[in-house]
Model the fold of this input.
Amino acid sequence: MTDDLRFPVGKFAPPSSYDGYSRATAMERVAAAPAALRAAVQGLTDEQLDTPYRPDGWTVRQVVHHVADSHMHAYLRTKSALVEDNPDIKAYDEDEWARLPDGRGPLVTESLALLDALHARWVATFRAMSPEQFQRTMRHSERGDIALDFILELYAWHGRHHVAHVTGLRSRKGWQ
Done:
């Protein structure tokens, strides 16, 4: 953990190499993310959900919806990379998505339920993949060619990153 409100678990840094152990660890983190996010927002009032986790940051509510949006994109990108040769993947403006009505809307419970189902399928997909499949790539419009090993590690970090935004805010505000 760091004192940087923007990156409370540190910035994402991919491992220098990938193996069965690192993949299994990352899969467990991806599997745990929905329950961890649900626990992080458990019992928060609407006013608390509408509190930014940092100055000029998203509200807790927007964070929950963002995680659902981002992980849906990543799941579909994973599947595309498994069935297409280096498919083109378009970036999207996360801040604009967070400003859309559903990104600010009250349906936090629905986004959490979506994450439960999505992660069950995504982790099942990861667990069924061969080591060679983790090396399949996609061409991201901003990052260039990235492998599914990278995606797995990135989203293992991403869930923890946003849970820490919420739990850090709860701790700073004394919301128990």
